[in-house]
Specification:
1 helix, 36 strands, 1% helix
Length: 402
């Protein structure tokens, strides 16, 4: 570090690590043996004439060729942050940032194939249906773009902001809005029906199973609706809303429910995971520490991020919430969804850390810090052993094992 003459109390710090004193020549040796590979901010500080001087430098720690250390297949930087979960196909990665830029990228290289400027910020995840990419915006648009070149096909205007991905099932598109309304569209964007189903915001996608819709909202409830009309079949409070004094705050609405083998599993803001009977909404059980859930690729269980008393973990649950197996993991409290494909489960945590686990037994394969400590609300997607992560720093990173 280049220090000005007369500087005192000089030190350097990597990320959130301990400060290490700089010598008179501005040199220090940092012990990085416990640090994950990836991206950090190197901070230098010194005092001079009653002032505190600071300098920052972005750095990347690597351990090329080391076992258990991933490599960056490619990395791209864009000007805006990401909250929207991308979509991966064999040839393309689709992503949308908070400035409304939609990107079609070459999956193998990160090269930009096309871009489209949406009329508003995109926070909800993208959905691919055939060759149509569905893009929600905070001004209530659902944009349908050609996945090949980004050309607009149609636009639907919902009743309020849309901050959740659309769900495509049975030739229909289900669009939840923050005013508690669900819009059901034909594949061409024409409205079939809309119904206000919740008293407050819906911010996660609708789950479709067996002619029914399942959705959580910020009014305390998980609901089951008829897929063809939106009519209510049953509603049931989340576990946190049943037990906490501010029930709406602890609603089961941060992450979508999972429907599996006659059960509905829904995590809430209190990090309780309720298990409901899918037929009538009756409470079956509850699991402490549940952050988010998703059906496993083999259809034989439910992945969940767990935090709390027994330590942070990635777990696979059966239909009643009993643990098939759990492994210690860096998962964090941000309700991003585990992503599974081709025998790999990708999990993102608060502090920019993405972990790859073996789907068969949860064994840790590798970990990486994709940005200098910023949250990863968009989660990750994976295909063919490559994990794709978009960050709040505007980074898009493709990672794989060495």
């Amino acid at each position: 570090v280049a220090l000005p003459a007369g500087a005192t109390a000089a030190f350097v710090r990597l990320g959130g690590g301990e400060p290490v004193a700089l010598d008179a020549d501005g040199r220090a040796t940092l012990d990085t043996t416990e640090a994950l590979p990836g991206h950090y901010i190197l901070r230098a500080q010194a005092e001079l004439g009653g002032r505190v001087l600071q300098g920052l430098q972005a750095v990347r720690l690597t351990a090329e060729g080391a076992p258990g250390v991933p490599r960056e297949v490619w990395r791209r930087q864009v000007p805006a942050s990401f909250r929207s979960t991308p979509v991966i196909t064999p040839n393309r990665l689709y992503a949308a940032d908070m400035a409304g830029n939609v990107y079609g990228l070459q999956a193998d290289s990160g090269e930009v194939a096309w871009t489209y400027q949406a009329p508003a910020e995109v926070q909800g995840g993208l959905t691919l249906s055939g060759q149509t990419l569905l893009v929600p915006t905070i001004q209530g648009h659902l944009l349908a773009l050609a996945s090949t070149n980004g050309a607009p096909r149609w636009t639907y205007q919902a009743s309020a902001a849309v901050v959740a991905p659309a769900t495509v099932a049975g030739g229909r598109i289900y669009v939840p809005a923050v005013d508690g309304t669900i819009h059901c569209l034909r594949a061409d964007g024409e409205l079939l029906w809309q119904r206000k189903v919740a008293d407050y915001s819906i911010e996660t996608p609708v789950i479709v199973d067996g002619g029914r819709l399942y959705v959580g909202a910020w009014d305390q409830f998980v609901r089951c609706l008829a897929a063809d009309t939106g009519e209510l079949i049953w509603e049931s409070k989340g576990e946190g809303s049943r037990n906490r004094p501010a029930p709406r705050y602890y609603s089961p609405a941060d992450a979508p429910p999972t429907v599996y083998d006659g059960r509905v599993l829904a995590a809430d803001r209190n990090y309780d995971l309720i298990v409901l009977d899918a037929a009538d909404g009756q409470r079956v059980a509850a699991v402490d520490g549940g952050v988010s859930t998703v059906l496993s690729a083999d259809g034989q269980g439910v992945w969940t991020k767990l935090i709390g008393g027994e330590g942070a973990a990635l777990a696979k649950l059966d239909r009643d919430g009993d643990i098939i197996f759990r492994v210690p993991a860096i998962v964090g409290s941000v309700p991003s969804i585990p992503a599974e494909a081709d025998g790999l489960v990708a999990v993102t945590a608060n502090a920019s850390i993405v972990s790859a686990h073996a789907a068969a037994d949860g064994a840790l394969l590798w970990q990486y810090q994709v940005s200098p400590g910023l949250y990863l609300p968009a989660g990750a997607v994976t295909r063919a052993g490559v994990v794709y992560v978009v960050g709040m720093d505007g980074s898009i990173t493709a990672l794989t094992a060495q």
